[in-house]
Amino acid sequence: MTALQTYLAALAPGIDIVAGCAGMSEDQLCAAGAPNKTARTLLTLADALFAPTSFTRLQRQAVDAARDRAHPLPTLEVIERYAARAKTKRDAWRLRVELCRTAADTDEMEKLARKKLRELNPPTPPRPGVRIRRRKDAPWTLAITGPSSLIADLESSLDEDSPLDSVAELFSSTAASAADRPTITTNAIITLDELDRIIDGDGEEISIQLTNGARISGADLVSRTLAERGLITLVHPFEGAVNLYRTERMASEKQRLMAAAENPVCPWTDCNYPADKCQIHHLQAWQHGGDTNISNLATCCPYHNGVNDDDPNAPPIRGRLVRRRGRVVWQPPWADTAPTDT
């Protein structure tokens, strides 16, 4: 018998091979000559088909059917891969039994298993709404789910050659009345040195952070009608926010806008939640004597605002926002709790 014939013959009694692995460890299988990946696959099948379970009758039926049908190892792998994705253990065992009783090669078994699993786990109907996926330093995604008539109407307004431009025109069309269009109050944060470069015509190389989480170039900012797009806050590189233009807000609203200008997204590490949707957080909590001054305020997403360690005298759990060298940063619970420069 050739090596190929020996290999193919060994694949045939798949369930007996799996039964022989029951109770063994990966190290033992590897010591017996099995490659790491093969050892893990065999142990996964052994745990599924021979480990103690409360569904002993279904387990016995599945093993007997796999032996009667002489399913090879690759077919047993397919059966287990789909059975493991059933929502309940009972459904998983019923699917194993049904598939093990079916005479099919590996490809046919995969098609059948996929169909049966879809019947067990029907897809959840999509819910109408709008979902936004924000990515750091990458394009964002706006997904709209709604009645077919609405989506069809939107699609009819798209230009196949430039769909993104037609979407932008659809949302900002001057044909819409001012009453129908939302008022945008996002901040564009520009340092004074960046403003000089924009005025000199070098705006294309400057990336400006908006408090709604987006970024635009200086050239894009100049090309827009600022009164329609939002507000501009000038920020000195060392002194912080200098002044707020294009607004006549009450002091509390001005503080919110200036806090958003300083932190366009939630300052917690790796959080990209936009400031326009953030809450205003007291670095020194109000109940612990903190003032509502701009130096003591920061934007913070609802989740991190809720888990922030507000009490400086309590054992730290999740860390807290502090001001270090003029910047608001997250202080981890294991960090040195030196006085902050608020």
TrEMBL record:
Question: Which InterPro entries does the record match to this protein?
Answer: HNH, HNH_nuc
Output the CDD domains linked to this UniProt entry: HNHc
Full protein name: HNH endonuclease
Q: Which residues form the HNH nuclease domain?
A: 253-306
Q: State the source organism's domain of life.
A: Bacteria
Q: Which organism is it from?
A: Corynebacterium yonathiae
Keywords in UniProt for this one?
Endonuclease, Hydrolase, Nuclease
One Gene Ontology molecular-function label: zinc ion binding
**Pfam families recorded for this chain?**
HNH
